[in-house]
Amino acid sequence: SELKLWGGRFTGATDPLMDLYNASLPYDKKMYAADLEGTKVYTEGLEKLGLLTKHELSEIHRGLAEIKEEWSNDEFVAKPGDEDIHTANERRLGEIIGRQIAGKVHTGRSRNDQVATDMRIYTRTELQKLAAILKTFIEVIVKRAKNEIDFLMPGYTHLQRAQPIRWSHWLSMYATYFTEDYKRLLQVIERTNVSPLGAGALAGHPYGIDREYLAENLGFNGVIGNSLAAVSDRDFVVESMFWSSLFMNHISRFSEDLIIYSTGEFGFIQLADAYSTGSSLMPQKKNPDSLELLRGKSGRVFGSLAGFMMSLKSIPSTYNKDMQEDKEPLFDSLVTVEHSILIATGVISTLKANSAKMAAALSMDMLATDLADYLVRKGVPFRETHHISGECVRAAEENKLSGIDQLSLSQFQTIDERFEKDVFETFDFEKSVERRTATGGTAKSAVLKQLDNLLSQLS
Ligand code: ARG
C-alpha cells in the first residue's frame, strides 16, 4: 500500500476486490489528454506563484508530453495502485522526471477539482464533436428534402391517414427537431465550459492561485464562483445525458416512422443494403436493423440519465465517491449518440424514396377537409361545412363509390345546393398541399422556406 498516493495514514492492505471496485482507470483513462492538459496549465499557475522554478516547470512539461506520447501510442503501462487516471499520470510523471519535482505538482490541488476539470474538458470536447456531426446530419436531411420536394404522401395522426403532405415536409419536421437539438447542445456546451480548477479539495486555494488564468488557458469561458460548488457540481453531466436522451427520443420516433414506411404494406422507402440485414432463415427478408437499433438504443441512453440522477440525488456536499459513477453512463451515452448520428446520417442519405408508392397511398377521403373548406370559401360556417362534407363521405360509401370525387354534381347538390361545378377542382392532392402556404405549411414555397430557415440556424 506504500504505492498509493494517499497511503500515509493507512497501514492495513485493502481487500483486493475493494481495489477493483474502487478503480476507475479502466474507463477514465479516456480522459488522459484532459488530465495532462489540466496539470500542464495548473503547474504554470504554481510557477507564477513561485511554488515551482522555471526549471521544475519545464521538467514537468517535458514529462507530461512524454506521458501523452505513451497514451497516444498505447504504450502506457498501468501499475497496481494506479487507481484512476489522475494517480496513474502522477505516478508516471515521478518515474520520468523524479519524485522530487513530480511531488510538487499537486500542491494546492485535489483530485476533487482535478477530476471535475478533466470531466468538463472531456465532455465539452465530445459535445463539440457531436455538434459538428449533428450539423452534417441536418444538412443531409435538408438536401434530401430539397431534392424530393415534389413527392406527396399521406400525413398521419393516430397512424391513420389524415391529409396529404409533402415528403419533404415530413423530413423538415425532423430537421426542425434536430435543429432545436443542435441549438440546445450549444447551450449545454456553454454551461459545461466553466472551470472548477483551483478550488482545492473543497475550501479553496491556500496559495491564491490565479483561477482566471487557469480557466482561460484551458479554454474555459470562466470560473465556477464557489469552491464547494466547483467540486460537487455534476449538473453538466446530467445535462449532457438529458440532451442525449431527448435527442435519442427524436431519433427513435424518426426511426419508428421509417420502419413503418419501409414495410411491404407502405413501401414508401427502401433502406440501402448497407443499413439492412437479412434473416438467417427467411431468404426474402430485408430487415431495418439500423433503425431498430437507433430506436432501441434510445432506451439505453435514457437509462444512463435516470441511473446517474439516482446516484446523485442524495449525495451530501461536497465530493463523495458516488460521483465517480458519473463516468460510465456519460461516456456510454456520448459514444452511443455519436454512432447513432452517424448511422442515421448514413440511413437517410442512402435510402430510396418511392414517390409512386407514396402517391398510391393517398386517398380521396383525405380531401374531406378540403371539401369542407370549399364551402367555407362560399361563406358557409366551418362547423356546418364539416357536417356537410361528412355526409358526402357517407354518400360515397353508401353508393359504393371509390371516393367522394366520384359523386355526381347532382348528388352533391342533393346534399347541399351551394355545391357548384367547380367542386371537382377540390379533388386534387397537389392543389390541396399548395393551399397551405402559411408559414410552416406543406405548400412547396412554405417547405422551401422552412428548409432555408433551418440551414440559417446552423452556425
Ligand atoms: N476517480 C475519482 C472520481 O472519478 C477521482 C476523485 C477522487 N477524489 C477523492 N477524494 N477520492 O471521482
Automatic annotation (TrEMBL):
CDD domains: Argininosuccinate_lyase. One of its GO terms (biological process) is L-arginine biosynthetic process via ornithine. It catalyses: 2-(N(omega)-L-arginino)succinate = fumarate + L-arginine. Residues 8-303 form the Fumarate lyase N-terminal domain. This is argininosuccinate lyase. PANTHER family: ARGININOSUCCINATE LYASE. It comes from Ambrosiozyma monospora. Signal peptide: none annotated. It comes from the Eukaryota. GO terms for molecular function: argininosuccinate lyase activity.
